[in-house]
Structure prediction request, 138 residues.
Amino acid sequence: MDIDARGPRFAAAVTTAVLAAALITRNPWILAWQTLAFALGTAGGVTKSPYGWAFRTLVRPRLGAPTEFEPPEPPRFAQAVGLVFAGLGLTGFALGPAWLGLAATGLALAAAFLNAAFGYCLGCEMFLLMRRLTARPE
Prediction:
């Protein structure tokens, strides 16, 4: 079943704020929260993530009916990509080296910002590219 396309973009906006706070403060606990949010979004799909829940219960009821839908698989894959980068960032902030924490968190932040500000989901595009490259010819 397709999902409201506004949900992942809302989640990207919240993710942008959380990752920016983690990057500015270099606080591993903030990044640990975001890593958990990515893990839940990867395991259960974007609608089961904390930001998906917030969109569904707090934001969507105040908006009009959705006019644009998208399949859930590309955003779910994007959550998995975010999980990898947040996990690397968390490792860098908690155990070192610090540059790994800064670089991985910065890359995750850039991807989240692109989605939040411009609706361009890098992880979704990676999913679609991989699907095209691995498709069997008919």
